[in-house]
Design brief:
Elements (H helix, E strand, L loop, with lengths): L4 H14 L6 E6 H9 L8 E4 L11 E6 L2 E9 L20 E6 L2 E5 L2 H7 L6 H12 L5 H12 L7 H23 L1
Helix pairs in contact: 3-4, 3-5, 4-6, 5-6
Length: about 190
Amino acid sequence: MGLIPELHDHLQKLADRLGKLRMPVHAYIAGGMAVNFHTGIRMSDDVDIQWSHKVAIPPDLRVFPAINPDDPSDVILVTMDGEFGDYLGTFPPDWKEKSILIGEVGDLVLHVINPLDLATSKVGRYQERDREDIQALARAGLIDSESFSQRIDDALDYYVGDITFVQYNKRDAVELVEEIENERRQK
């Protein structure tokens, strides 16, 4: 499936606890867990999942231990609180439709945000971890600067208010990807 085993096992426990549902519930995974899915690196201490329905995660299933892929001797506690929303980042409006179906666990249908939309989602906040994630996706050959720039513009079309700071973030983020593209061409 591509998810870290601990997250897959945790989602299985959640599906078992929820039992048979009236309809499938879709889970759209973004953030650090999506970076890990696409690149095999990067661990997050939370799971960013946007659910298609309200999911009441039982208190004893809100945290689980996971091995850090960047340091196999390190075990971290990962939080899954069910409150993630795409209003916090620069998510393009159709990111869920373009997400990648990765499997089912019980009546939970699992999707992961595609690499281009994942990188785009990082531009609004654009902290050090976000820059590292964008670079990792570019180094893995999963995004290119032209498509990235256009996808950011798609997301910004749905912003209201002063987006000057996001435009600066966009410029810097696209330059990061261009630098990696130039390094790859020189090899």
